[in-house]
Design goal:
This protein has a single domain (about 1-245), classed as Metallo-dependent phosphatases (Purple Acid Phosphatase, chain A, domain 2, 4-Layer Sandwich). Helix content is about 30%, strand content about 20%. It has helices at about 15-25, 45-55, 60-70, 75-90, 90-100, 130-135, 225-235, 235-245; strands at about 1-5, 30, 55, 105-110, 110-115, 140-145, 150-155, 160-165, 175, 185, 200-205, 215-220. Helix 7 (about 225-235) packs antiparallel against helix 8 (about 235-245). The two termini are about 35 Å apart. About 45% of the residues are buried. It binds zinc ion (ZN). Zinc ion binds near residues 8, 60, 147 and 149. Zinc ion binds near residues 8, 10, 35 and 62.
Length: about 250
């Protein structure tokens, strides 16, 4: 079984389209670590694709905020403006779907799927210290998460935590072998709003058969088209500008 792992799509249809074209026939099932909506200008197209194609989805903090309007006070003004715009523009059916997404962790085969940390979808696992704590909560040796918009993740090898870097800016992909004796927190990176300084859309493919491997990928997409839609929607200009910088 081969899994396409996507996270933090953030209503960016151009980025999702490029990921799907790049991954083509290299996967059997799709898993999504949350944040379908918020920030971008195409929430309905992205949610409809997720509804039709994802085998398992957990909700992200933006999915919760954009459909329940809970926790909006914790958002910065730009994120709040994005969430309120999404509330007004998401179709009723898509809003119902997003509102009812399960809170992680969720499980499929021997994989654990979460958005933020194992104990809270709003918490960030961004450094080795947080990862060390998170490994203590995981029920599976192989977990996929998002929320930080930073591709990579962490390996627990009994003695210490190793940090997995993102795909370098000069390459399109690389892979790591999965050692069943170690623990893994894998972040595929963000499809729709990367923040690791590389504006290319990020995703991962997990191959479970034979020597299990995770492939990290980056792919260029039509950033200008996604930016134009954000400007035309009247969303904060910063949400368009940051796509160009990948920050
Ligand atoms: Zn996000």
């Amino acid at each position: 079984m081969r899994y396409l792992i996507v996270s933090d799509l953030h209503a960016n249809w151009e980025a999702l389209e490029a990921v799907l074209a790049d991954a083509r026939s290299r996967f059997d099932r799709v898993i999504c670590c949350g944040d379908l909506v918020g920030y971008g200008a195409d929430p309905n197209a992205v949610v409809e694709w997720v509804r039709a194609n994802c085998h398992l989805v957990v909700r992200g903090n933006h999915d919760k905020a954009c459909t329940t309007q809970e926790d909006l006070d914790w958002f910065n003004p730009v994120a709040r403006a994005g969430a309120l715009w999404t509330v007004q523009n998401l179709s009723k059916e898509n809003a119902n779907y997003v509102r009812e997404l399960p809170k992680g962790p969720a499980f499929v085969d021997s994989l654990e799927i979460l958005h933020g940390s194992p104990w809270d979808e709003d918490d960030y696992v961004a450094g080795a210290e947080e990862a060390s704590e998170a490994f203590g909560y995981l029920e599976s040796r192989l977990a996929f998460f998002g929320h930080t918009h930073l591709q990579g993740g962490f390996i627990w090898n009994h003695a210490r935590i190793e940090t997995i870097p993102p795909v370098s800016s000069r390459h399109g992909r690389y892979s790591i072998k999965i050692d069943p004796g170690c623990g893994y927190l894998i972040n595929p990176g963000s499809v729709g709003q990367p923040r690791d300084g590389d504006p290319r859309a990020a995703y991962a493919v997990y191959e479970a058969s034979g020597q299990a491997k995770v492939f990290y990928h980056r792919v260029r997409y039509d950033v200008a088209a996604a930016q134009r839609k954000i400007y035309e929607a009247g969303l904060p200009a910063y949400l368009a500008e940051r796509l160009g910088a990948g920050r």
